[in-house]
Amino acid sequence: MKIIIDTNILMSALIKDSITRKIIFESGFDFYYPMESFKELLKYKSLILEKSGMDEIEYNNIFFLLLRKIKTIHAELIQDFFQKAKYLMHHIDPDDIIFIATALAFDATIWSDDMHFQEQNSIRIFTTKEMIKLQK
Questions:
Q1: Helix/strand/coil for 110
Q2: How far is CA 113 from CA 28, 30, 84, 96, 128, in A?
Q3: Which domains, and CATH codes, for the chain?
Q4: In this structure, what are the phi and psi dihedrals at residue 48, rounded to the nearest 5 degrees?
Q5: Which residue from 21, 8, 22 is spatially nearest to 99, judged by alpha carbons?
Q6: 7: Cβ contacts below 8 Å, ≥ 6 apart
Q7: Is pTM, for the whole model, over 0.90?
Q8: Which residues pair with 125 in a beta bridge?
Q9: Digit-coded pLDDT (tens) for 94-133
Q10: How far apart, in whole angstroms, are the C-alpha atoms of residue 64 and residue 128?
Q11: Using CA atoms, how far apart are residues 83 and 94, in angstroms rounded to an integer?
């Protein structure tokens, strides 16, 4: 199964050794993350370090281990889907258009606990609770 993870899911996996991290490492699903969204993740790096209690080296180790399980997607691979994604999400949350475009491009679902994704009905959204059930 192809699953696009949103930034909050990736942040959760970085902050602590949780079920989120376990699902990414052990589920066998194909995870994707749009390259463009690393800017947002970088914006929250100091918060992640603070919440996790990790130092820079520990953070980098976990980050690169996660990247071995997540395929990063370049913008040119999803650009043909931006118009439709914009139509679906611009009135809900413009920052999440990129995740919708990535899901459309790869015929994938999105893993997110942000309820605003549920306001659109073109892309299947899995919450963490649903991901746990899928893993069993």
A1: strand
A2: 20, 18, 22, 13, 6
A3: 2-135 (3.40.50.1010)
A4: -60, -45
A5: 8
A6: 37, 40, 41, 44
A7: yes
A8: 110
A9: 889 999 999 999 999 999 999 888 888 899 999 999 999 9
A10: 22
A11: 12
